Amino acid sequence: MVQATALPRNDSGIETVIGILKQRFADRLQTGESIRQQHGHTTTWINNQPPDAVVFPRSTEEVSEIVKACAAHKVPVIPFGTGTSLEGHVNAPAGGISVDLSQMNRILAVNAEDLDCVVQPGVTREDLNTHLRDQGLFFPIDPGANASLGGMAATRASGTNAVRYGTMKDNILGLEAVMPDGQIIRTGTRARKSSAGYDLTRLLIGAEGTLGIITEITLRLHGIPEAISSARCSFPSVDAACRAVMMTIQYGVPVARIELLDERSVGAANAYSKLSLPETPLLLLEFHGSEAGVVEQAETFGAIAEEFGGTDFAATTSTEERSKLWQARHDMYWASLQLRPGAQGISTDVCVPISRLAECVTSAQAKTAELGLLAPIVGHVGDGNFHTLLLIDTENADEVSKAEEFVGWLNDLAISMEGTCTGEHGIGQGKKPYLERELGPAVRYMRAIKAALDPDDIMNPGKIV
Amino acid sequence: MVQATALPRNDSGIETVIGILKQRFADRLQTGESIRQQHGHTTTWINNQPPDAVVFPRSTEEVSEIVKACAAHKVPVIPFGTGTSLEGHVNAPAGGISVDLSQMNRILAVNAEDLDCVVQPGVTREDLNTHLRDQGLFFPIDPGANASLGGMAATRASGTNAVRYGTMKDNILGLEAVMPDGQIIRTGTRARKSSAGYDLTRLLIGAEGTLGIITEITLRLHGIPEAISSARCSFPSVDAACRAVMMTIQYGVPVARIELLDERSVGAANAYSKLSLPETPLLLLEFHGSEAGVVEQAETFGAIAEEFGGTDFAATTSTEERSKLWQARHDMYWASLQLRPGAQGISTDVCVPISRLAECVTSAQAKTAELGLLAPIVGHVGDGNFHTLLLIDTENADEVSKAEEFVGWLNDLAISMEGTCTGEHGIGQGKKPYLERELGPAVRYMRAIKAALDPDDIMNPGKIV
């Protein structure tokens, strides 16, 4: 395990607040060990730092009450969505109150004519899309896990569709949030664009709950495309596949998804999802548009792929085949774990300019080989973002140390290539040292903002800055 | 004229700083009356509040030196691009130093493979597009005026292409900025997405120079589409035109531009640009895509338009016809002024959810008629944003008062419709009262951020908050 630093605790304040909240929330305030453990971070190699209590509010006003109580007694508040974050975001290094937003899961409005909707933060993306389907609408951001939309906003999540539809920051019109003093604010309207003052919407998106708790989100929606088709194509090398991606993007093909699996990931997918793909680097694509449009997009891509030595190109509009392929992509995490049963998967998240992607992926493969680490790679390559999944025994100090060496080396490499240490997972506890290396003196101004809005550092302390 | 409040001056500090800068910048520090007047605001009805001096830096380091000198003596710093802003953004209500960035006009890098470029803030959008053309690339944001990219970033500008390509906030990867203490920072990398810490990029975009001076911009570029076509269609009413827009967007037609001209604007365009369009509400469209794609988009739109009573539908791929149509659209400001020679044009900028657009435009027409104001309307209707151009004699107190009444009434109407008082022009001095009405307690946190980053309020004081 990687040890996250514990921070000084305010025991008497915490005790007082738990008393107040117990009175107010009765059974919706829980202090049992297992529920507390569950609300400390579990999907990472960072050690669990459980909160002292977990509270389940059902309204913005209740969140405000909780925050006001915590603010009065300088007690940490840690917002919790579904717990799928990867960098220790929900850990409680100074203890405090985990605010579990899963009961704030109502879809408050769907404005089909305006292609927007208003949701509470506990709504998951799958719930939302199920709700929208009958109206011919969908919300495109898909980070893989069935995360809550509040959590996705807080980490500036993206995923496979971002190459076409952007990230959370591009698909949120406005937020309602409870600020560190308990005040409820709205950061935007339902207008599709605005130049009204500082962009507090984008400031809270990606702030990982360190500046306030998101209690309502106004999302942009999209019409379900008339036609959807998918394609796959094998390449002789990662380099060839990346060059094909670059040309496809430059050519303006509006691909909805363009994903890379390296040879090891393809092997894992073949075994887990009973496929028989050639075990060389693979691109998986999805096209959205009119009937004629998706055919044209697939043809254009096919021609480009051929130029770069692509083989076994296959495009399909069959829903079944498409689902099978994308299910395999979504299952990559589980498929990869099967390469080494019992191991834990630790995911990197660098994102580089697309012209540097081939070099970055190839270097990562060479480095893991050199360190003797098993590490399949998948990537949202249209954005230059890829994940190396390190399969390690987290109880083996030597492996952990090699994995840490690799993560640091890769983050530094990405930064040296004018890229970022995190394309979509966020900073949390795990990437704090790299934020400074990436953005240097800018971090000082982040700290100034944090200190101005949350002078007692009660909102998700120990994360980002 | 509308009187902007003057703020207390720090005369001795200003004098000292002018001395220091004169020594350092020689002829690049100007204090002549006409150049100072020119750098106070002129394209609005707000009175001119000239700075005490204008300085022309040529590098980020020079900007940093200027800001450090001003910070040391608590002297206001007002960044200046091309002076095309509309809400008094470049006025100097407390005097101080205007930092004219027009000599920082180099295109530092074009990374064609990554579809990005790095520019200094004084580069104008037309200069950039001229530079990019040979490489098959373009930068889509087009606010009409040939504004500087730094100014466009500072006001979160958009314009006709935003319905497809988004606004400045969606097309900037990262910024370099000089902060209020003179420190130079970078807010992002060239990665296409990132979850690394607070989004200082988006915080500075739209901050109108009140939190720092943008000294370098990394922009997203797009490939020039294989085919571009345009279309126009006349409608029996604003309502019918807006309904056609709504259906087009909902249907997922990826229109690049969809602009409304009301009957009065069409009349003005006919007279000024020697056209013979039917004098009823008109939609102008542009489609980007493949050869087949743009034909299909135009056909789909044509069918939708017909459903809503559209007539005289004409689509063309001829560059000449297209240019003529869009030139007429770009010349609307001048065409409108000809409706009342000698009058000044004062533009509103509300943006509402598209389902409320028809009602909002129709109400605006009725209200100007009631007040006896001549006011043609054009709109970026795909986004729900429109401009009423009030043609008034700014020396006539009664007209000014009626115009002020209208502006206030319209801003309040838009806010009541879950919209914003400013879609793209910004707050500046002119819209400060409406920011509070629109976002309420959120403004308190904007003030806290301002106070944290710029404790002496030297960066463009008197704007936004």
CATH architecture of the domain at 227-334 in chain A: 2-Layer Sandwich
The structure class of chain A reads alpha+beta
In what range is the share of β-strand residues of chain A? 15-25%
The stretches of 5 or more residues of chain A where confidence is low (pLDDT under 50) are none
Q: Quote the average pLDDT of chain A.
A: 96
Which two protein chains have the largest interface (Cβ within 8 Å of the partner's Cβ), and how many residues from each?
Answer: A-B, 96 and 96 residues
Largest sheet of chain A: 7 strands, antiparallel
Query: How many strands in all of chain A?
Result: 18
Radius of gyration of chain A: 22 Å
The CATH topology label of the domain at 227-334 in chain A is Alpha-Beta Plaits
- What would you call the shape of chain A? globular
- Report helical residue fraction of chain A: 25-40%
Oligomeric status of the shown chains? Answer: homodimer
Measured distance between first and last alpha carbons of chain A: 22 Å
Number of helices of chain A: 16
Instruction: Give, in spatial order, the strands making up the sheet with the most strands of chain A.
Output: 15-12-14-13-17-18-16
CATH class of the domain at 227-334 in chain A: Alpha Beta
Could you explain how this protein is built, in words?
- Chain A has 465 residues and is of the alpha+beta class.
- Among the domains of chain A are: 11-102, 2-Layer Sandwich (Uridine Diphospho-n-acetylenolpyruvylglucosamine Reductase, domain 2); 227-334, Alpha-Beta Plaits.
- The first copy, chain A, is built from 16 helices and 18 strands.
- In chain A, the strands form four sheets. In chain A, strands 15-12-14-13-17-18-16 form a seven-stranded antiparallel sheet, with helices on both faces. The first copy, chain A, has a five-stranded antiparallel sheet with strand order 5-6-10-8-9. In chain A, strands 1-2-4-3 form a four-stranded mixed sheet, sandwiched between helices.
- In chain A, helix 8 (238-250) runs antiparallel to helix 13 (357-371).
- Chain A is globular.
- The two termini of chain A are 22 Å apart.
- At the A-B interface, strand 9, helix 7, strand 11, helix 8 and helix 10 of A face strand 9, helix 7, strand 11, helix 8 and helix 10 of B.
